[in-house]
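Co-fold these.
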Amino acid sequence: MSGKIRVTVWNEFRHEIRNERVKAVYPDGMHTVIGEGLLETGDFEVKYAWLDKDPEHGLSEEVLQNTDVLVWWGHMAHADVKDEIVDRVQKHILQGMGLIVLHSGHFSKIFRRMLGTTCSLKWREVAEKERIWTVEPAHPIAQGLPEHFELPHTEMYGERFDIPTPKDVVFITWYEGGEVFRSGVTFERGYGRIFYFAPGHETFPIFRDANIRRVIANAARWAAPRIRREITCPSVPALEDIRTKPE
Amino acid sequence: MSGKIRVTVWNEFRHEIRNERVKAVYPDGMHTVIGEGLLETGDFEVKYAWLDKDPEHGLSEEVLQNTDVLVWWGHMAHADVKDEIVDRVQKHILQGMGLIVLHSGHFSKIFRRMLGTTCSLKWREVAEKERIWTVEPAHPIAQGLPEHFELPHTEMYGERFDIPTPKDVVFITWYEGGEVFRSGVTFERGYGRIFYFAPGHETFPIFRDANIRRVIANAARWAAPRIRREITCPSVPALEDIRTKPE
Amino acid sequence: MSGKIRVTVWNEFRHEIRNERVKAVYPDGMHTVIGEGLLETGDFEVKYAWLDKDPEHGLSEEVLQNTDVLVWWGHMAHADVKDEIVDRVQKHILQGMGLIVLHSGHFSKIFRRMLGTTCSLKWREVAEKERIWTVEPAHPIAQGLPEHFELPHTEMYGERFDIPTPKDVVFITWYEGGEVFRSGVTFERGYGRIFYFAPGHETFPIFRDANIRRVIANAARWAAPRIRREITCPSVPALEDIRTKPE
Amino acid sequence: MSGKIRVTVWNEFRHEIRNERVKAVYPDGMHTVIGEGLLETGDFEVKYAWLDKDPEHGLSEEVLQNTDVLVWWGHMAHADVKDEIVDRVQKHILQGMGLIVLHSGHFSKIFRRMLGTTCSLKWREVAEKERIWTVEPAHPIAQGLPEHFELPHTEMYGERFDIPTPKDVVFITWYEGGEVFRSGVTFERGYGRIFYFAPGHETFPIFRDANIRRVIANAARWAAPRIRREITCPSVPALEDIRTKPE
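Predicted complex below.
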């Protein structure tokens, strides 16, 4: 027992293999760079899983039972994730496992499953500047972050973002091209906590940025299970005498 | 054009056929009694649909396009509702259609789809008394309701109810047997509004009760579409000059 | 009985008297122009009140009893509003009256009283461009508004805005100078509804803008009382037999 | 530096002096028994303050600067708390200090100040039984608590409780006499966290109950400052070139 939070970083891991531009930025896959950011804090044990790792996308029942927080990045192959694996991940989140969804993961099956909405948004890919404003400085996910920080080149994700009203809007982004976005938002579902964070386009080295790494590490600490427990629907006996009798 | 709100009351409609006790209470099906309660206000046009009405459960694309608010009662046959019909209903809710889920509909595919949780709860069927407290008297769904009202015989639904934090908790129930329940709760998903209301067990004449009818009619007015619009995920041009250039 | 919503527009009305630049924009006071925008919809009866109108700032008990929605603009003389008048306005809001707070009213006694926070923000006055994004297009306050609209010259109000988590964030603003702001936010307190809207600097003709007028009129419809009732703290008899006896 | 959370327990401390029945239950004051419950966990440093301790009610600027979490119990003398001390406590909460309000503290100046509402409720004092349901078992304040727990004798506090929609409803109470109550609710204001907990009537030994003590200790851990920082309203220079020029 290390006392560390056990994170599984899940990456689609196809862009980095098929696209030279992405491979140049993340030669060993985005997941390894996200994991590196977590490991440098000393607070996490990190494992990796990806779409084509095995027939279960690296997300067996055993892996999930031993995962405190699951980080999810996907983009071009959302449809290739099997529904039975989505069912399994959902079950573990509702029982207490944390979920962090990054960037294009907004359209993943698991994020849409958890929220019930389309999770649609506006987008544009012209390498513009993004400035992220810390709207809730006291939130654990904002710990140690400045009041605003920038990414020199980013893909724009703009409102309206079709999500339920978040528990907390921790970050709101300003884009050079004129849009805004609720870029860091939290949700609670069942016993589990969910954080969505918008930055993370595959052609920019965003997961090497110190502020971005801090946000993800903070989120992983915040999303670690508070309890982990099955959810049942039991028939229960009365706790008080029932004196009302049907006719 | 009547200017009336168009409600489709959907009922599983199997208990009333197979179970003598239920048939005695709702000889023509629960849906007709729910519809009767809506019609007596003069504010609604009511149509009916049920599980075995046709291969689409009476919920064709055309029916849903002409439905402002869908009322849902189901219990023993949730699994028989086809996934493609659930997809279709979800799409219409996100685009603006209202949804009212009654009683055992908490476990319906559509409610769980919209909320992302198990929607589990505790339950007990001993015909005990229920007292419903109006916690938000100013909410449109509480309009004209007293500060509390009673049902002489009810099925108990107790906490913890596995739902996301509601937008509003309009009613909380006290049970004779010792439990409490958030019995009237609202959600917003996409452009649509959702209301869940716990009373409505099939062996009691609950949908003939004046207060219950008022709640459902209020909810149907509240859930009527404010806008009705497709949700898209467009790529958009910049609104401002982009002066940041990638290296 | 006109069936119209009765709005009282309250204006500090000192800038327009003392400052030539403001007088040029609003020769008869900002309140008259705000009122004009409401009147052109045909849905409202409009009255006016201001700080120096009479010893009660035009907000007698009788005026408030006959006000459905109070609109508030103040800036340089927040401290001159008497605490007993603030008490009175608070009482009426909690009992059901609506409140719309505009621009620099974020620092008014009544807004801080209702929210319990400092309502601080960042600001800058360089006549920059503001683009307002409609984040909740289905909200009644967003009815008929485009997905974004612009003000050519505005005072910047930036995050962090020290308010409790709003009920709804209807609008988020993008500023030319690089900030973002939750510029249209709702709250509910007691039986009353509150809307804060950031635009409205005294040196620009913002209250003549068609989109701004539409927002304020929508908000006044939305904030109209649903119920209007005193709030009491009564001792009540038990509804059930108490069988537990103290030792 | 002990690394412990520094709690100041504030008690009105008049009932225990003037009323024999209360003195019998809490001979050294309720605050000492609340403090004892915190101390037995080993996680807290506890100090005490009370209304008549000194002209500042024991809440000097220095005391508050060295308080992480303030616990508040008051009842018969809310009006005797000086407004300037309420201002000071509010300032510290907004800057990050936690606040736990117990039982009749619902009507304290500081609680009403923070929430902006009357905080009214129904009440009855017949020593009835109360059963507290844990509605959010994953919330830090519910850690280690059973799904329900009881108090044999309590004062009834019933809905409607005039508070803004809480951040989380952690506990809901069932009363023998037929009411329900949102008995454990959280709020965030500024950088501070607030927890209200309904049990705690002065004539019953409720603060000696193990479950009640656990709730209060959990709440004190949860409400400890995440950041502590002044809130300002600065004028700031533009981060981007302003190219829009006023006419």
